[in-house]
């Protein structure tokens, strides 16, 4: 018997004098007392008392039955087999008597040979000790301190296992004879009550565990984040299995460990979400990682490197591995300030951790699903942004408007304070501002050249050709106007992504934030988007280059026509006219023969006809009046020469660019010719208006309609000419409903300069 279990005193046996009942009657009284004690214990069990309450009641009742001054109920860990020398520890689970404050519930001591507890557990029978044998036993010092002089120990067998031991102690010389039998009989019957209490406790714990798992399942079903699920797991584990702390550890692929949840005690080394470092090589984290099995620390005082845990107030802990999808995912550990957690902690936690692993897997799967949905939503958003930009390109919107749209899409996608787009100069020393949007008040005109600084994200993009993210630390110690401006505006981070068009580094999209560093995937998100935007910009450039090329071709053709018209007018036409005049003069001579004069007159008349035909041809090639007097008078001249009546309304002041005037002239000329030759029209209406930087032209006849560009008319050429000039051409010609052609051509204005933009 150890010191705690030997702190009882013996009371005198009852005086069985002649005046008292017979021994048999006394024995019946003792039996009645035992039965009454057992009924009281059974009533406690039936009423749902906890095992601790039942253990204390057993100690109390036993003390009264055998006249002990102190009684203890202790659990052995681990339970010994039959005939085996017990090892391990005893834990007091029920205490009664005058020394219960010295040996409270939860008190632990090591089993040593020679202790009456060890003897009772080994033999399975009660054991007694007293006098010198007790005073000189393994815990003599404790015995002397507590003043115990005799003790009786009786094993407790529950479910066929030697679960624990009871000890009755007294400060008298010894217990009466037969005490062992009384204790054994009571404990044997009490063991059933203890088993029932234990079973009921296990049922309650199972119900609590199931409720905890239901709560966790609800969290997962509601789509809670893995972090929230981990924190809930730690709370439930502490509630059911620990008394000091509960924490979850995740093992990373590189062998590191991460603390994902903590509930209870803490310390400087406890930082949720960060690496779990400095753990002892023989501790729970290392052991579970190395073995994949359960680990236990009986006393951190005995563990090298356990000082940090002692600093938390922990003495013992148990770690259970968590296997997810067949792989060691991590560990859940519980700790206590007591010298050792109960021996069945691992067993109790086993079912819990298996189900927790399922909850973790479900939470991760749910998180993966949510992440997949978020990724899909992001992708759809980016695709929608690209479609919006591509639609602008397809509509022929000016590049500077497209650049503004791109900047706005980037700002919206990343949620930045400002975003802008710029084109790199050939040497990379500066960029040209092309557009920007956002809340940061930095207004730079489009076309402004901005010198790059090494600490900016666009400069890094130029050097590396890759996306770049730069935080405020990069310009914190820099003293120049740009760095000063960034600090004054409160810019804390910038991220930039290259725009690569047809294999060349064309430009950069730059975003600024006043909120702090961008998320780690911001550069990648921008890169994903700008890679798609580059295609749109490339298409816009190609379209612009094609339009410029077509315009140059049209201008070259018009110039060639003008030169031909001039050569005809100033060259062959003038010579033919001169010859005709000479022939007329010769025919008018009084000395010539009549027949010769007649022939000369005929030739002169024919030459004048050729001159008229050449004049008409030169008008078709390039009307001289258009070059001399402008579109307004040239259109009126067409109306006068038309064989079909023309109602003309021309609202044009001054001259327009020559390509625009030529294009509009040919539209009206072709439509008047078609109205006369094919439409059978009785009237043609011509409306021309130059305003708001646009020339709007409409030619309408009341003819037979049905005009079809595919049948070889000049309508296709007109449409090509209008589009080459950046304009539009539309035809409406229902059968029997006349023909209407509408055109719009852009005109330069005095304000046709790049717009101011907000840079990013």
From TrEMBL:
Ranges for region Disordered: 1-25, 731-760
TM region(s), chain numbering: none
Alphabetical list of InterPro entries matching this protein: GAF, GAF-like_dom_sf, HATPase_C_sf, HATPase_dom, Phyto_chromo_attachment, Sensor_HK_TwoCompSys, Sig_transdc_His_kin_sub3_dim/P
EC number(s) stated in the UniProt entry for this protein: 2.7.13.3
Reaction(s) the record says it catalyses: ATP + protein L-histidine = ADP + protein N-phospho-L-histidine
Root EC class: transferase
Pfam families xrefs: GAF, HATPase_c, HisKA_3
Entry GO terms, CC: membrane
Coiled-coil features, chain-numbered ranges: 189-216
Protein origin, superkingdom: Bacteria
GO MF terms, alphabetically ordered: ATP binding; phosphorelay sensor kinase activity; protein dimerization activity
Cross-referenced CDD domains: HATPase_UhpB-NarQ-NarX-like (cd16917)
Stretches assigned to the Phytochrome chromophore attachment site domain: 398-509
Keywords (A to Z) from UniProt: ATP-binding, Coiled coil, Kinase, Nucleotide-binding, Phosphoprotein, Transferase, Two-component regulatory system
Family of this protein: In the N-terminal section; belongs to the phytochrome family.
Protein name: histidine kinase
Protein source organism: Amycolatopsis acidiphila
């Amino acid at each position: 018997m150890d010191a705690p279990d030997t702190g009882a005193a013996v009371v005198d046996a009852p005086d069985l004098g002649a005046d008292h009942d017979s021994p048999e009657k006394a024995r019946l009284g003792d039996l009645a007392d035992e039965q009454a004690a057992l009924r009281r214990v059974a009533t406690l069990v039936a009423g749902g008392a906890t095992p601790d309450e039942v253990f204390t009641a057993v100690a109390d009742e036993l003390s009264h039955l055998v006249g002990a001054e102190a009684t203890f109920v202790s659990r052995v860990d681990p339970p010994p087999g039959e005939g085996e020398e017990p090892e391990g520890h005893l834990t007091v689970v029920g205490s009664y008597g005058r020394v219960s404050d010295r040996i409270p519930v939860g008190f632990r001591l090591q089993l040593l040979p020679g202790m009456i507890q060890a003897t009772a557990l080994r033999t399975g029978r009660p054991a007694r000790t007293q006098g010198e044998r007790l005073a000189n036993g393994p815990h003599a010092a404790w015995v002397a301190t507590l003043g115990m002089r005799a003790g009786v120990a009786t094993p407790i067998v529950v479910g066929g296992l030697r679960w624990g031991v009871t000890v009755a102690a007294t400060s008298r010389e010894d217990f009466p004879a037969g005490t062992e039998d009384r204790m054994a009989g009571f404990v044997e019957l009490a063991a059933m009550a203890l088993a029932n209490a234990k079973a009921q406790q296990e049922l309650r714990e199972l119900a609590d565990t199931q409720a905890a798992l239901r709560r966790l399942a609800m969290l997962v079903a509601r789509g809670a984040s893995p972090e929230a699920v981990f924190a809930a797991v730690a709370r439930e584990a502490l509630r059911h299995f620990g008394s000091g702390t509960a924490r979850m550890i995740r093992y990373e692929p590189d062998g590191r460990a991460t603390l994902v949840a903590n509930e209870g005690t803490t310390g400087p080394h406890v930082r949720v979400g960060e690496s779990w470092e400095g753990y002892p090589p023989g501790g729970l984290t290392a052991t579970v990682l190395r073995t994949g099995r359960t680990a236990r620390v009986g006393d951190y005082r005995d563990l090298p490197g356990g000082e940090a845990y002692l600093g938390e107030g922990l003495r013992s802990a148990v770690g259970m591995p968590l296997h997810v999808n067949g792989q060691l995912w991590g560990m859940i550990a519980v700790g206590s300030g007591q010298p050792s957690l109960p021996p069945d902690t691992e067993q109790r936690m086993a079912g819990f951790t298996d189900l927790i692993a399922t909850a973790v897997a479900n939470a991760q799967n749910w998180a993966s699903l949510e992440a997949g949905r978020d990724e899909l939503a992001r992708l759809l958003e980016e695709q929608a942004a690209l479609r919006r930009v591509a639609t602008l390109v397809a509509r022929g919107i000016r590049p500077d408007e497209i650049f503004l749209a791109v900047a706005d899409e980037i700002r919206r996608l990343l949620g930045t304070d400002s975003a802008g787009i710029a084109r790199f100069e050939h040497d990379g020393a500066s960029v040209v501002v092309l557009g920007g949007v956002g809340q940061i008040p930095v207004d730079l005109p489009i076309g402004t050249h901005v010198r790059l600084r090494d600490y900016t994200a666009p400069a890094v993009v130029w050097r590396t050709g890759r996306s770049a993210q730069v935080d405020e630390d990069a310009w914190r110690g820099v003293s120049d106007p740009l760095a000063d401006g960034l600090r004054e505006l409160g810019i804390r981070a910038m991220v930039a992504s290259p725009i690569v068009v047809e294999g060349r580094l064309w430009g950069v999209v730059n975003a600024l934030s006043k909120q702090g560093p961008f998320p780690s995937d911001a550069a990648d998100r921008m890169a994903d988007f700008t890679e798609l935007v580059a295609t749109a910009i490339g298409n816009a450039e190609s379209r612009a280059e094609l339009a410029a090329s077509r315009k140059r071709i049209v201008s070259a053709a018009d110039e060639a026509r003008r030169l031909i018209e001039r050569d005809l007018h100033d060259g062959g036409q003038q010579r033919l006219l001169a010859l005709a005049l000479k022939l007329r003069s010769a025919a008018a001579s009084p000395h010539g023969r009549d027949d010769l004069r007649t022939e000369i007159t005929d030739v002169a008349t024919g030459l004048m006809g050729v001159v008229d035909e050449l004049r008409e041809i030169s008008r078709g090639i390039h009307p001289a009046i258009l070059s001399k007097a402008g579109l307004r008078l040239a259109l009126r001249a067409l109306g006068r020469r038309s064989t079909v009546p023309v109602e003309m309304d021309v609202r044009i002041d001054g001259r327009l660019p020559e390509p625009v005037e030529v294009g509009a002239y040919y539209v009206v000329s072709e439509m008047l010719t078609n109205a006369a030759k094919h439409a059978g029209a009785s009237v043609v209406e011509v409306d021309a208006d130059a305003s708001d930087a646009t020339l709007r032209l409409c030619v309408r006849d009341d003819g037979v309609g049905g005009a079809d560009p595919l049948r070889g008319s000049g309508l296709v050429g007109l449409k090509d000419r209008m589009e080459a000039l950046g304009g539009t051409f539309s035809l409406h010609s229902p059968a029997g409903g006349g023909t209407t052609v509408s055109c719009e051509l852009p005109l330069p204005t005095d304000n046709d300069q790049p717009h101011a933009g907000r840079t990013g």
